[in-house]
Task: inverse folding
């Protein structure tokens, strides 16, 4: 039985369900606690090996294939000890088992069961390869410069982005928590202690307010930086609750309010993506339309390559925004070596930013966002 | 500490599959065999059980029912954002300590004496985790909605769940005499860490399906007409197949069944559904969607 179980776990791993050594030990313990009654075994292995319902169908089809019961053994396979959880509840099991079993049944007919040695030969290299491959992919996604990313890589990055965004949220939460409790407020502590005969029973703390900042994100949606903007928004969108107010603006030659829903960018008004970038004009319209929205509590986050197609940069407007805003941070997806070359006017904007950060790949982008917020 | 006094009289319960099954029946919790098996496993292997599934499928209830089955106490820790060790594990009762110092001022006790005194059990506020670990007998620890807590808390919880011991610098280490049965529930508001999942058994608790739901209704609202019980179960199951913002929970189904009984309704028809559907659906859009499709659902519930 132990060998069979190990073989099964190997197959699970080959199918992409990550079962650790500790979990396989649990599975063995569970199987020995329940006996070999088929549906009880299924429940035992599922509980110990499948920790995500998304993997359940894979598990079920593998289980059906691997622990397929030959007809003649069906009757005698039950051990007396399994009568407890197993047979007494048997009716329920039977009804339940039908559902997941339907799909694999057809597979069982189509594909003959893998020969044992063949399976072993096949899985050994594949498992090691898979792990290595996964890690390598991850690193590749994180470090490939944005401009060199192909659509396939962009798609794969989506999964990783979720994790990165989760980390960002944890980071923001920590920051907020630190801000929540300030230094001891001596005056209020003494004042409160009067009620208890001068014993400072309840210490009072200064509150730091406001804890949450307003975020105004300006993302360049023109062709050269659209992917990066997508990534940035995917990072920021789930963290909306950790800001007091979030305003997302996309721009090419003028700013347009956008939102990020179900992994897709939704502009609120039509936006000409083929237009030529003009950040000067964007600044002008921003100053006219959103000037009042930029306050001492606003973090202005700009993502763009500062390539203005030789139009007036209007950095004076950025300077004025800078005096109003709490902080202006510019994320530039280009390598620093290419700033201020050609039509890039990074230098004239950089003077009015608190920080300019190079964010050439996903790793840099995440780090930049974390340090900026 | 009153539980300590009475504990030696109660022998530990021997865990068998029958015990779990009968316990669930006795606690009037109907479920599938797979769920019963998993519960039994988590008790035998002494592993925490992580339950995920849609809201209202009876996740939290499992913790309560398990306590009833084992005839023991339920210690519940409700998670929320910002939950920290002081709220989950223990905290010194500063107020009481200060008062003690104040009261002792005249008696000129030595520092050691005072120190011994104010850092004793009497001045410790036990929070759920410590209460479960320090309990003299096996209790059920229900950690509800773990997905609402922060990632840091999850990491801290891992430590507690792997050793079942807590070290309090001033007092020493408190180790569990018997490991509590731990049930964690999650609504998947966020993905839980792999490490936590690895340490737990996993159970996905879905809505029970027409058959069992009808039995549940029959059990909890026995004086409702049997045919109506069947119709309600089928109708609600049909509702859950729609793309709703919030699918009706089992508790809401029962509320509905009770309401139908109170109204003295004999037959589920379109008019009744329209009047009472707000008991199962709590969103305006859901109601509207269900009303447009209630004809088909009703037809399905009668067949």
Result:
């Amino acid at each position: 039985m132990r060998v069979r179980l190990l073989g099964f776990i190997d197959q699970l791993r080959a199918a992409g369900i990550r079962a650790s050594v500790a979990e396989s030990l649990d599975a063995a313990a569970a199987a020995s606690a329940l006996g070999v009654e088929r549906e009880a075994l299924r429940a035992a292995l599922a509980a110990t090996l499948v920790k995500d319902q998304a993997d359940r169908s894979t598990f079920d089809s593998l289980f059906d294939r691997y622990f397929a019961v030959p007809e003649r053994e069906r009757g005698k396979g039950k051990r007396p000890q399994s009568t407890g959880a197993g047979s007494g509840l048997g009716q329920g099991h039977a009804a339940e088992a039908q559902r997941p079993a339907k799909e694999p049944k057809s597979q069982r007919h189509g594909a003959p069961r893998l020969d044992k040695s063949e399976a072993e030969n096949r899985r050994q290299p594949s498992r090691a390869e898979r792990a290595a491959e996964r890690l390598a992919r991850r690193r590749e996604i994180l470090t490939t410069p944005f401009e060199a990313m192909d659509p396939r890589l962009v798609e794969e990055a989506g999964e990783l982005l979720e994790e990165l965004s989760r980390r960002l949220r944890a980071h923001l939460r920590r920051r907020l928590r630190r801000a929540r409790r300030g230094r001891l407020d001596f005056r209020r502590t003494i004042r409160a202690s009067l009620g208890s005969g001068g014993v400072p029973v309840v210490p009072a703390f200064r509150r730091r307010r406001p804890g949450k900042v307003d975020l105004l994100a300006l993302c360049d949606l023109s062709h050269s930086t659209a992917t990066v903007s997508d990534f940035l928004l995917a990072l920021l969108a789930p963290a909306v609750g950790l800001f007091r107010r979030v305003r997302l603006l996309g721009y090419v030659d003028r700013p347009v309010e956008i939102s990020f829903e179900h992994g897709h960018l939704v502009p609120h008004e039509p936006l000409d993506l083929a237009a030529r970038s003009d950040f000067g004009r964007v600044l002008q319209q921003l100053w006219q339309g959103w000037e009042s929205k930029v306050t001492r509590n606003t973090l202005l986050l700009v993502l763009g390559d500062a390539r203005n197609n030789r139009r007036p940069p209007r950095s004076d407007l950025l300077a004025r925004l800078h005096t109003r805003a709490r902080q202006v941070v510019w994320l530039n997806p280009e390598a620093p070596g290419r700033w201020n070359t050609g039509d890039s006017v990074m230098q004239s904007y950089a003077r009015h930013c608190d920080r300019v950060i190079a964010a050439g790949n996903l790793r840099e982008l995440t780090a930049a966002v974390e340090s900026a917020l | 500490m009153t539980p300590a006094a009475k504990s030696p009289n109660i022998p530990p319960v021997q865990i068998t599959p029958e015990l779990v099954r009968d316990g669930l029946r006795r606690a009037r919790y109907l479920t599938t065999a797979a769920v019963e098996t998993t519960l039994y496993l988590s008790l035998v292997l002494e592993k925490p059980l992580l339950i995920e599934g849609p809201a209202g499928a009876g996740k939290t209830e499992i913790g309560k029912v398990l306590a009833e089955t084992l005839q023991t106490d339920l210690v519940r820790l409700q998670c929320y954002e910002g939950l920290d060790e002081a709220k989950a594990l223990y905290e010194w009762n500063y107020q009481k300590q200060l008062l003690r110092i104040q009261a002792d001022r005249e008696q000129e006790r030595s520092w050691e004496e005072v120190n011994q005194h104010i850092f004793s059990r009497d001045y410790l506020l036990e929070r759920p985790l410590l209460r479960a670990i320090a309990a003299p007998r096996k209790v059920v620890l229900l950690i509800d909605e773990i997905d609402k807590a922060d990632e840091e808390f999850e990491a801290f919880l891992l430590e507690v769940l792997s050793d079942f011991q807590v070290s309090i610098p001033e007092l020493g280490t408190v180790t569990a005499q018997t490991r509590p049965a731990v049930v964690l529930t999650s609504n998947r508001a966020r993905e839980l860490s792999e490490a936590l999942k690895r340490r737990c058994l996993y159970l996905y608790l879905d809505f029970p399906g027409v058959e069992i739901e009808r039995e549940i209704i029959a059990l909890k609202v026995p004086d409702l007409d049997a045919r109506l019980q069947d119709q309600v179960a089928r109708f609600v199951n049909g509702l859950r197949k729609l793309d709703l913002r919030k699918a009706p929970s089992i508790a809401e189904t029962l509320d509905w069944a009770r309401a139908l009984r109170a109204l003295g309704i004999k037959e589920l028809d379109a008019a009744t559904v329209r009047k009472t559907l707000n008991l199962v659906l709590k969103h305006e859009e859901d109601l509207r969607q269900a009303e447009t499709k209630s004809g088909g659902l009703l037809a399905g519930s009668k067949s």
